[in-house]
Amino acid sequence: MPRGSKDKYTDKQKRKAEHIEESYEERGVSRDEAEARAWATVNKQSGGGERSGGSGQKKSPGAKAESRRSSARRAVATRHGVPRPGQRLEAMNKQELLERARRQNIRGRSSMRKQELIEALRKA
Questions:
Q1: 3-class secondary structure, 18
Q2: Which domain holds residue 91?
Q3: Which tens digit of pLDDT belongs to each residue from 95-115?
Q4: Are 49 and 3 in contact (CB under 8 A)?
Q5: In the chain, how many domains are there?
Q6: Is residue 72 in some structural domain?
Q7: What is the DSSP string of 72-102?
Q8: How far is CA 51 from CA 2, 65, 98, 101, in A?
Q9: Cα–Cα distance measured from residue 32 to residue 37, given in angstroms and rounded to the nearest whole number
């Protein structure tokens, strides 16, 4: 069962938790477990009960937009296998090294061992 008072939650958060709880109960989850899961979901989605005084971090719209762009750039780089700055070749696995060698069009890469790939990438 969830702990603490729910007084600091908004009406919307309380309705949402109630709806989630009912949904879990319909699926056969016990009442206590359903209530605990519902409040955990609300907390995860909204960061807990609304508190007065603006205790949360506030960002300007421009700063939020920049954070989104930065996050999107990192996500794209990750999907395309671009190594993080400072990532050493030795820390990469052979598949990552092969992909990097392919992007740099290193000939004979498919028959190279890991150490040979590292040396070829350093020369390229």
A1: helix
A2: 83-124
A3: 989 988 999 999 999 999 999
A4: no
A5: 2
A6: no
A7: HHHHHHHHTTPPPTT--GGGS-HHHHHHHHH
A8: 18, 25, 52, 53
A9: 9
Give the type of residue at 114.
K
pLDDT tens-place string over residues 53-64: 555 567 888 888
Cα separation, 51 vs 123, in Å, equals: 57
Question: Does 62 map to a domain?
Answer: no
50 with 8: CB under 8 angstroms? yes
Distance (Å, whole) CA 91 – CA 114:
11
User: CB count, 10 Å around CB of 85?
Assistant: 5
Smallest CA-to-CA distance from 116 within 96, 97, 92, 95 is with 97
pLDDT tens, per residue, the chain with 124 residues: 556 778 788 888 899 999 999 999 999 989 999 999 898 888 888 777 765 555 556 788 888 888 888 888 877 777 766 666 666 888 888 998 998 899 999 999 999 999 999 999 988 8
